[in-house]
Structure formats: structure tokens, C-alpha cells
Write the C-alpha cells for this entry.
Amino acid sequence: MNPKRVLAVLFAVLLVSSASFVVDVGADRPAPVPFEDTITMGMTAAATVQAEERGVEVPRAEVFYSQYRYVVGYHGVASLADELGREGHARQFGTPLAIYVSDYANADLNVTDEGLFRISDAPSTYEGWVAAEDAHFVVGSRARTPAGEAVVPFSDRSVAESFAAEHGGTVRDWDAVRSNSFDTGAATGEAFRAEVRAQHEWADRQVANATALLDRPVSVVVGEDAPTLPAAVEAAPPNTTVRVPAGTYDVNATGDGSLTVDKPLTLRGAGNDTHLRGDGNGSVVTATTGRVAVADIRISGVGDTFSDENVSTDQGDAWDYRVQLGYGYGDAGVTLDSANGSLVRNVSVDTPANGVVVRWSENAVVDGVTVNGSDDWTDGFMGVMVMRSRTVVQNSTFVGGRDGVYTHLSDGLVVRDNRMVGEGGMRFGVHEMYTSDALVADNAVTGASTGVVVMTRPNGNLVVGNHVRDSYAGVNVAGRASYVAENVVVDNHYGLEAPSQTSIYERNVVVENDIGFRASSLIPTNRVVENDFVDNDRYVTASLGPLRVWTADGRGNYWDDAPGSDAGGDGVLDRPFQPSGPVDSRVGDTPGAATLANSPSLTAIRALQGAVPGLRPTGVVDEAPLADPVRPAVVDRAAGANGTETTETDATAVPDGDANATEMTAVGATGIAPMEGDA
């Protein structure tokens, strides 16, 4: 093809693809838009709903940028100030053409005794606007929102001063607010790694505390000291052990097939030879007080109900009341209800519904559990359901069913070293809803719709060292300020999906997926560096929207077949790479694409794009692609034959591959194997 013809065609393509991002800087100042029409940042979905339900006002901001097509809305002036100061912000968005903030000069404001910021006449619906540079901000007052401090703006300085005099704080102009740091942004990679270690340490402490429950003295032996299991539980003094010898026990204490433990006891069997059998109605064992342990037992005869609309709780006015009923009150092999510090260990459950339900039970531990769920996920429910509980779920196996582990409003929980096998097409391996600051680490998932999914705009989640293969999507993290690192995703449709904002994606190994990375967020604030992309049918797909620059501190990612050479010997190729571009995306599978990628014509276009903002490409660009893989040994194992590679972790690793699925259906099989590190 004629090089001039190639240049003309590519130039035309670039003009069309970038035209929607050209902003007329000389146009009149844009007027504010309804906040619901903006692309929003700055608060979790749970915090937003809680603010609405409680009538708490959240000051807002919206920004029009020179190089970004959409109006960006911010829940909280503090989140806007921190985002404007983030390194790389101007590069991604361009210059703010107009910034508006909520104007409370004419609002009837009050601050409750608890510090909640409210409007007396129109809670949570007020939308007066003032240009940021014309506003006066009260910083450091008693006013709070579910997201933290409320920076309160006013168009009238005298009203701002009156508010500060009544509720504390100082009045500042926009420049002073913008130069301040409110610590609402994402942490650095180093800080995230420290938080991963801290979460593991917290989990270790909870496991140690719960494991001590197995050391209680035996007070009653079923069949020797009491004729039935319910009688033994009733007779046993608190803080002792009820020993359940090998055998099959029909649990029918209350006529509904359920055994209730309402005092701190340890219920301990002889492993798989101790079989507790319900009658198919309700949960089999329910603990309703703290420090209960259920260990070394096999359970069947679980009811098939996923929810209980008739249950009476004291949470009827909570915004998530219907969610609680629909998810947290289904039948299970073991239910922990207000059972803080309890333990479920080495328990296997055959269930058409849940395996274990943990609700309102802080510091509980689920360890070494095996749950065999329904063959078709639409017929089953959750391996472990965690509702409003900071819990540890570890070393467990989930086969079939809907989700391996489901969480709701369980901030800070730890889900680690588990195995999920979707023999009948499991929906999700780990499914987080309205859950922030959680650690999901070193889990292995095969045959699911999505291996790990984090939904409903949470904050600060840590998704590290997981291994997902043969699923529709590997890891999908929404929300903001999360850490997605050292995961291995192999042979999925999507390897990684990133609807998140201000999050870090680093040292992930993305191999042999249909699409390596789906960049679906319209907010271009994620840091994506030092990941390995190998043998994917397509490197990246990106939603129509901003240019995403996946480079930081002079380093990008490894892309197999990326053109260029390491002429400088610094491990970085001598030309940028556009994995979503029309030419670079085809260098590995189209003859002649590599030659065209290095042609003078394309080099000239790249230079023109860098010089003219209106010609900036959409999609993804890596300005410093790496010459060699970041984790070569892990890449080699992931790309190797037989699917037997192991997950590199700081503790243990789980062998992966469908060949192990049959083994995992056996009660008590955990599949834990020794760690392999980078070579």
C-alpha cells in the first residue's frame, strides 16, 4: 500500500475518533447541569444511599474539562480538591473550563448533635450552584456526611462566616481549598501493600482467637451422657464442648429440623463420619450467641429457601432491610446470627441453598469448609453468605451453587485461600456488594461467570493474588481507590475488567484471554502499570471516552509482540504502544502490522497526536512499554500446558485447572499446594 495513502487514511481515522473530545476553549462559560447527568466520583454507593435515607446533605461539585467529553460530578468538595491535585489528573482530563459547587447561602442549614449536615426545608434535594472561584468555603467545621468532613460552600461570605461561628471551622477561598489535602484519594502502591499485610495479620488474630474454642473441655458426649444432640446441647454448661461421635443424627429439636445453640458452646464431631441431617426445612444448626464453634461435622438436609419475608428484625427502618431479608435469612447448613467471635471449621455441607450464613457476627471465622451446591447456579445460592459482619473466610472449597462467597456491608472482611469450582456454571466466585476495605486474596476460581466481582461503588478493596481461569471474566472491580495486584487470569473471555476509579492495577498476569483488559470506566483515573499481557486474542477494549495513559514513573506494562527495541538498555521500548489502536492492536496476528507500526508515516502521526490536543487518541496508550515480562516465571506457568500452574502468593497457592474439579467434589478436599515464587 502507498505510504501516503496509509498516512491519509490513518489521519482521517484519528480525526473522526478524537473529534468528540475537542472542546472549544473560546466558547461561553458552560452552565451547570443537573447533577444526575454527570459522571460521578467521590462517595461509595452505600454512603450515598445512607445519606439520602437519613436526610444528610452532601455538598457537590461539577467540572467541565478541556479534554474530557463528559461533565464530572463529585460527591464532596474534598474529593474534588484531592482529585485535582492527583498526579496525572491534568494529563488525563485537561484544564478545568468551569467548576461549580453547591451554594448554601440561601439554604436553611443545621448540624445535628451527631454532626450530620442537613437542610431543614429540603434535605438532600438542594441544588443551587456557584462558581468555585466565587465561593467561600467553611473547612474544619462539625458538619459531617457519611463520607467524612463536609467542606461547605457559600456564595455570600457573611453567611459562611455565620456558619463557621455557629458550627466551627474557618472560611477559605477556592485556591486555599484546592491546595489542601483531605486524604480522600487512593493510597500509593506501597501503602496498599502495607494494608494487605495488616489485613492478613488481623485475620490471623481472629483465626487464633476462634481456634481456641476447640480447646474447651468436653462436658457432654451424645449417646453416652445425653440421648440426643438437642438434649446434649441443653445439658452442656457454657464454655464447654459437646462431643458428637461418628454416626448419623437427625436434628429435630423444635420440630422444624433445626438445632439452635443459644449459649457459648463447641459442637465437635469426628469429621465426615459425624453426619447431622436436617429434614429439608430451614437451617440445620443456628448459633444465636457469641463464641459458638461448630467443627468436624458433615451436614445435609438443608432447606431450599433463599429468603424469609416473615422474619422479624430490629432493622426494619434500615435502607437495606429488603436486601437483608432477601439474602441474609435464607436456609443454610450453619447460620451464625449475632454470634460474634464464632467458628465454623472443617464442616462439609450438601445444600440446595446456602452453606454457611454469617449475619451480624463480627470477628467470626469460617475455615476449611466444603460446600457442595446446586449443579445449576440458578437453582442454588451462596457457599458462604456474609451480611453486615467483618469475618474471615479461608481455606474452603465451594463447588457449584450461585456464588462461592457473597458479602453485603461487611467492610474489612478477609476472603483468602479458597477454591471455587463452577461445575454447573457458578455465577461469581467472590461477590462483594456494598463492601469496602476488604481483602480478597489467593483464591482460585474456575468455570464461573466472574471469578471476583466487586460492585456498588465501594472504596479501598484489596484484590490480590487470585487465580481465575475458564470463566467469562476473571476480576471485575468497581468503586474507587482499590488495589488489584498479582492476580493471574488465564483463558477467560475478559481477563480484567476495570469499571473502577483512582485504583491501582499492578503486577497482574493476563494470559490467553479473548480480551486481556476491558477498560470500562469513563473516568480515566486508574494507574495500570507493570502488568504482563501475553497471548490474548485482543490486548484491550476501551469504552468510548477518554485517553487512558497506562504509564507511571517512566514504566508501563509488558505487551507481547509490542514493536520497538530496548535501545537504551533500561528495560523500556523506544516507542509508545497503543494496545487498543487500529494498528498496534494487530501486530501479533496480522501480517504486515508490525512493519506498519514502525513506519515513518505512523511515527509522524504519533508525533502529531502528541502536539495537537484535539488529535489525542481515545482508548489506551502505554508510553513506556516494557521489554520483558515483570513476572516471567508466572507467565511461563500460566501459558504452559496442562493448566497446572500455581498461584504466586505470600503464603500458600492453589493448583488450578479443570482436571481437579472431580477431586474438589470430595468432602474435605482443599487443594492447597506449596507456594512457588518468581524465578
Remarks:
- DSSP finds 13 helices and 48 strands in the chain.
